[in-house]
Design a protein that fits this description.
single chain, 35% strand, 347 residues, alpha+beta, 5 helices
Length: 347
Amino acid sequence: MKRKFLIGAQVVLVLMQGSLALAAPAGLATAMVQSTGAADSAGFDGVVEAVRQTVIAAQVSGAVVALPVKAGDVVKQGQVLARIDARAAAQNSAASEAQVVAARSALDVATRDVERQRQLFKKQYISEAALERAEAQYRATSAQLKAQIAQASAANIQSNFYVVKAPYDGVVADVPVTLGDMAMPGRPLLTMYDPAALRVTASVPQTALARMAAGQPVKIELPGLPGERQWLTRPQVQVLPTIDAGTHSAQVRVALPGDVKDVTPGMFARVWLPVEGENKARLYVPTSAVVRRAEMTGVYVIDAHGRPVLRQVRLGRAQDNTVEVLAGVAAGERVATDPQAAAKGRQ
């Protein structure tokens, strides 16, 4: 009787161990394999561009005597970017101001003289010709004063060209000159852009444009950013009205949000355009659920008994925080989002 009891206890213990093996690991996070039948999308390589990018060039000649900014500096509108030697311009401006003073004095003399000539003409002490000569001298002196004032104003405006200021708030992208370089009219001094106005431009074949689905959002992929910020969704896309005759493609522009961070002109980007296709169902799993071991790629699938089972899969492209699964799982199955915890649960 004791031996039968011991055998029965061993059977009960084996059954209890089996039931524990079938139970799902406590606290294991899972996610369901999602299926979507949305319109297909096609990706096209592009580049980040600045909507406002300015090459600031010199308007006058002179040596660069001050360069208070460097590449990468954030500047405000009206901030001084460079100074050009303006000593000769200052002397010209002072000479013009002196000529204005002299012309004003000459006009005062001419004004008093014509008044006297008019009084004498009324008393018939001088001829009409003498009065006309005095009035002509007055008009000539007045016109000369206006010319001197205009010349002085032009000299003052030109003197302002020797101080280069930022036309808007932005970031200095390049400074190709150094202190002591000779600035010449048209020679670039620096390049700046507005980081709040960026866009992605890509070349899209005209055959793909014909299949582009209207009224659907566009996705932007920025591989250079961290994973959680690589994808952006934009409501509309701008297609330029001309097609390149050599490549038979059109330029597509997608505006980036003004608050996007760590994005600069020249960065690689990819534009995913919705295209009309077969709209076949696609399966997606969280990126965190993917396990890579040597040449094997898989996910831990929760089986009917609640156990995580490692299953090999074939992946497609990643999008947002999910990745497409081409083969290996079915819609509705659950996968472990923490592969390390799932591996421990199998032990």
